[in-house]
Each structure stands twice: as C-alpha cells, then as structure tokens.
Design a protein that fits this description.
The structure holds 2 protein chains of 2 kinds.
Chain A lengths: L25 E3 L5 E3 H6 L15 H8 L5 E4 L17 H12 L5 E8 L2 E8 L10 H17 L3 E7 L7 H20 L4 E10 L12 E4 L5 E2 L3 H8 L10 H6 L5 E2 L5 H12 L7
Parallel strand pairs in A: 5-6, 6-7, 7-8, 7-9, 8-10
Antiparallel strand pairs in A: 1-2, 3-4, 4-5
Chain B lengths: L7 H19 L5 H20 L3 H8 L7 H9 L4 E2 L12 E8 L2 E8 L5 H6 L7 H16 L4 E7 L6 H5 L2 H13 L5 E10 H5 L6 E5 L3 E3 L3 H9 L5 H8 L3 H6 L5 E3 L10 H19 L4 H13 L7
Parallel strand pairs in B: 3-4, 4-5, 5-6, 5-7, 6-8
Antiparallel strand pairs in B: 1-2, 2-3
The chains are: A alpha/beta, B alpha/beta.
Chain lengths: 285, 317
C-alpha cells in the first residue's frame, strides 16, 4: 500500500498553482543526504553526513567570519551601468533589475570591514546568485576600493571568490577588471598587507586569472570547482575525457595551487591563525 | 626499537636486563644486585660503543628508522601553532618537501624541510625524502613569503638527495636547486639550517644556505653519499665504509672544516633513543641562533652570509 493515497478524484491543478512543500524546511545534498535546514545553518551550511559544502553567499560568509555578525559594509550603493547597451535574450538593465529583485543584492560582490576573532579584517565576498557571480565594473571597483581601505588602514584583506567569470554584458570593461584588481593586490603586496584568497564553489574564468590565485595564501573549501576554462569547454575543445576530480579543490592542492583546504567550520580559526603567524603577533585562540 | 649491527651488544644486555627484571617480579629471588650489575655493564657498553663511532656508523644512525623526521621536530617545536602550507604554484605539491608557519615561544618561523616516511606506504608517499624541482620551488616560494613579512626561516635537512628522475630533469632539477641557492644567499631574513639526518649534496644545499648551519651529532653532510662515492670511485658499493671515512662527512669533521657552524649534541645512542631530549636541544639551538641574528639589519645579515660562503674553499695561491 502506498504511504500517501490520493482520495480526491479529478485533481488537475495547473503547474502555476501547485503548492510546493514549505520552502526551506529540508535540504538535500547532491549525494542524496537530507538535512533539516536549521541544522544545516548551525553546521556552517555543510551537510553533516557527507561533508558537502552548500553554496552560500556574502550574508552567510559574513555571519561565519565576523564576530557576532557585526560589520560595516563598504560602498554598498555602487551599482552597474550599461555602457554597451548590451542585449542578449534580455536587455542588460532588465537582467540587472531582475537579479536585484531576486537576490536583494546590488551586484555580485559585497565588501565589508569588521572584527574577526577580535581583530579587524576586510572581506570582499562574491555572490553567485547574482548573474553567476560575474565580474563587471562594479565588482572590480568594489574590490579595488576594499583593497584601498585595507591598505590605508593596514588591515589584512580577504577575497571570497564564487564566480563564473567575467560579465559578458560589460565585455572588455569586464576583462580589464582582472588587471585593475590584480594591480591593487600588487600595491597591497608592496605594503606587506597579508591577502588571503578563498576559492569556493565555483571559482572559474576571470577570477582564477586574477585575484583568486594571487593570495599570500590561496585556500579553498573542499570539493569546490576551481579552474580557468570550465570542464565542458575543456572537454569540447580537446575531445579528451577528463580525469576524476578534475578541477576540484583537491586537484588544485595536488597540483600546487592551494596552500590548504579548509572545512568551513575551521575557516575562521585558520585564517586568523595564518594572520597571527605571518604578522608575528600573539596567537588568538 | 630496531638495532643496528654495531648495537647488538646493547641489544643483548637490554634483553638480559628485561629478563632479570621479569624474574624479580615473578619470583621471590632477589635480583636487585644482578640487575644493577647488568645496568652498569649496559651503561659502560653504550658509552664505549657510542664514544668511538666510525663515520659509517654515524651514517647508519642518521638513517635509523626510528629517528625523528622533519614533521616530528616541527610538531614538537610548535605544537598546535603549526600551519602547513602547500604547493609550488606551478605544477605540484611535493610531498618530499614540507613547509609552513609555526611559533616557538612568541616568535613565528617559516619551517621548511625534506620529509621521509616511517613505513613502506609513507616512504613511497614521501618519495624517500627525495624532492623534485617542485619541492625546491615550493621551498623558495615559502622563503620569499617569509622574507616579505620579515619572518625568519628555519630549514630542516634530511635527504638522501634530490630525486634523480626523468620528469625531475624535464622540469629542471638543477635550475630549481641553483635558483634556491642564489636566492638564499640574498634573502633578507635570518636563515637557520639544521641537518637532522642525511645531508646529501645539492639536494640538501638547495634549502641549506644559512646564516647558522647546525648539524645534529649523528648526521652526515657531504657532496655525495658514501655508497655512491664508493660505486663511482671504487667501482663497487663494497667500499662505502672507506668512502664514509674519506669523505669526512660527520658533524665533527664538517665543523672542523668550518663548513658548518655548530654541532647539536644528541642523547647517548642517537636522537631516536630520547626524542624529547633531542627536540629540546634543537629548539634551544634554533632559539639561541635567532637571538644572535635578530638584531642584524638585512644588509648586515646578507653581507655576513656572503662573507661566510666566500671564505669556503682550500687552495694554493
């Protein structure tokens, strides 16, 4: 006997009117493990059974890394323009508006300063939900300004990458954000301000060809996709089958591009341990 | 505990002592006197054997399977504060060369060293402590990072040599070692080098140019291993003992020739017989060395290092 038996006959609800189960009560990881969302949140958005690191955004990362979720957002109002009058299946301004409505975000990165384990830290965190975390002028400018802030105040800097790459709708303006952000990081390096790059799922395209790979340490979350050309592009271009685990965090660690992989629950401790060690200051515990 | 051939008299006495103690525990026979005598004999035998070690015997001790390796030292020195860092940012993370940041007391150091394994599986994983070019490039990357932030560098040397492999040659083993040696001569932070096991040739010097170069008592450091030397010059591996003597590769010899700065004493019987004591001696030596170097300006530091290496060599004018 079925567990649920339909008693009423002739139900023909149209798709639009179908009621989903209340959203957000349960989460199912890719390996099929199911977890209560409250529990997931308490476990740093990591599925406890299989260790799957759920994609999260700036809101969650700030909450994880800043003490008591207290921080001051920088340049919160910077917004995109449409210099190329770009249009694909949708006009760029419309796409922006739709993304803003859907995500309640202004663009694909948020930058903030706050205390992490009692000391100041500047974080720029990308949001994948906003047009695939794509990097246009706003992302580049906000990262550059956050780096400037870190430089001026001599505060360690961290970028959390989560991006599909450059934003096509801003074409070559996007491309030049690679140069702009990298130049800023070079200034930071000259001033000997520590810069930590955290690669999360996914970190691809223009981000890997700029700030994501330029950290004093490059670190990653387990199982993240990290690479320049996406796996599909590589497969289609070369006609080769890709090895298991190609372009995962573990693959990058093995090939020498990551300093270490950190579980999200250890992230706050580990980045601050690194900062204490490299700045030769007493360890915070 | 594993015993080397020349240690067999010690093994015998230790077994006798064990037996004696067991008899004492299990029967009413008073064995105190007998045990005492064996203990005395044991102490004398140890002294006798370890006082007169030949060069080859020291080579054997330096490779003793129970000897503490790089990570053992680092973990003992830094405890929870050690943060291992990986990768050369180029092709690979070399498992035979490890590195990372850690604290001794309040001071951060960048630790770098070759790592050997402790059983068949881990020995393979660590490639027997033989680095590829990526290992040397990882070491250089970490040194440069330490230099950038003014963190002193400690290198721990324990390698039978750089890996003589096809891919190692393709990727420029020689270039990688050469680059490290050059960069280390001008690094603007103190470099303290400790030979904790085997110091074989360029593979060792690739992380071994330092302001203070220390050798643990039962280690060796030379241009080639005694076996390879024997095979090249005598055309047979049989003459390794003679080769070991001839190469003057012990800590004492190296100190006398002024090619290293200091010998760190090991517990009687070698580092592995009392690891804690060994770790303390190494820690003490590192801290003291750093104290001597920390107040030198980068310019003075580099000049002093330059002068030291310029002085090495014997010739007729």
């Amino acid at each position: 006997m079925a567990w649920f038996k339909r008693k009423d006959k002739g139900i023909q609800t149209s798709t639009e009117e179908k009621k989903d189960t209340p959203k957000g009560l349960w989460y199912k990881s890719p390996t099929g493990k199911i977890i209560d969302t409250k529990e997931l949140e308490q476990n740093f958005y990591v599925s406890p059974e299989d260790g799957y690191h759920v994609r999260i955004g700036s809101r969650e990362y700030f909450e994880i890394l800043f003490d008591d979720n207290k921080f001051r957002e920088l340049d919160a109002n910077l917004g995109s323009r449409d210099p190329l009058k770009f249009e694909d299946t949708k006009k760029y301004p419309e796409r922006l508006k739709a993304a803003q409505a859907k995500t309640k975000l202004k663009d694909a990165v948020r930058t903030a300063v706050g205390k992490s384990m009692g000391k100041d830290l500047v974080i720029a965190c990308m949001d994948f939900t906003f047009i695939g975390g794509s990097m246009g002028s706003v992302v580049g400018e906000k990262i550059a300004r956050a780096a400037d802030y870190a430089l001026k105040k001599k505060i360690p800097f961290m970028i959390i990458s989560k991006s599909g790459g450059a934003r096509m709708m801003e074409a070559a303006y996007s491309l030049m954000q690679l140069a702009k952000t990298s130049a800023k990081l070079a200034q930071l390096a000259e001033a000997k301000i520590p810069y930590i790059s955290l690669c999360t799922d996914p970190t691809t395209g223009g981000t890997t060809a700029s700030f994501a790979m330029l950290g004093d340490i490059n670190i990653a979350e387990p199982g993240a996709l990290i690479g320049f050309a996406g796996p599909r592009v590589v497969r289609d271009t070369t006609g080769q089958e890709l090895p298991d685990g190609f372009q995962t965090s573990e693959f990058l660690l093995e090939h020498g591009f990551l300093d270490f992989i950190s579980h999200r629950k250890d992230l706050k401790h580990k980045i601050n341990l690194y900062i204490d060690l490299i700045k030769n200051q007493p360890l915070r515990s | 505990m594993e015993y080397l051939e020349f240690e067999l008299p010690i093994k015998e006495l230790e077994e006798q002592l064990d037996k004696c103690q067991i008899i004492g525990q299990e029967s009413d026979v008073d064995v105190t006197e007998t045990c005492k005598q064996i203990e005395k004999k044991l102490a004398e035998t140890k002294k006798e054997i370890y006082k007169n070690l030949t060069a080859w015997q020291r080579v054997q001790l330096s490779r003793h399977p129970n000897r503490p390796y790089t990570l053992d030292h680092i973990n003992a020195l830094c405890g929870e504060s050690f943060l291992e860092l990986h990768g050369d940012r180029n092709v690979k993370d070399d498992k035979a060369m490890i590195g990372g940041l850690g604290k001794i007391g309040d001071q951060s150091y960048m630790f770098i060293g070759q790592q050997k394994g402790f059983n068949t599986k881990t020995r393979q994983y660590r490639n027997f402590g033989m680095s590829n070019p990526e290992g040397y490039r990882k070491a250089l990357r970490l040194m440069k990072s330490a230099e950038k932030f003014g963190i002193p560098v400690v290198t721990l040397i324990d390698t039978p040599g750089a890996y003589p492999g096809l891919e190692a040659e393709e990727r420029g083993q020689g270039e990688a070692i050469a680059r490290n040696i050059l960069e280390m001569t001008r690094l603007k932070v103190p470099i303290i080098t400790v030979i904790i096991g085997e110091g074989a040739s360029g593979g060792a010097l690739g992380i071994g140019v330092g302001d203070k170069v220390l050798m643990l008592e039962n280690t060796w450091y030379s241009v080639i291993s005694p076996e390879s030397c024997s095979s090249i010059l005598w055309r047979s591996w049989e003459y390794k003992e003679q080769a070991a003597e001839a190469l003057k590769l012990t800590a004492k010899d190296m100190k006398r020739m002024k090619l290293v700065d200091q010998i760190v004493k090991e517990p009687l019987g070698g580092a592995h017989t009392d690891k804690e004591k060994t770790f303390l001696a190494v820690k003490d030596a590192i801290v003291k060395s750093y104290e001597e170097l920390k107040n030198l300006s980068p310019k003075e530091l580099v000049k002093q290092r330059m002068d030291k290496y310029a002085d090495m060599g014997v010739y007729k004018d």
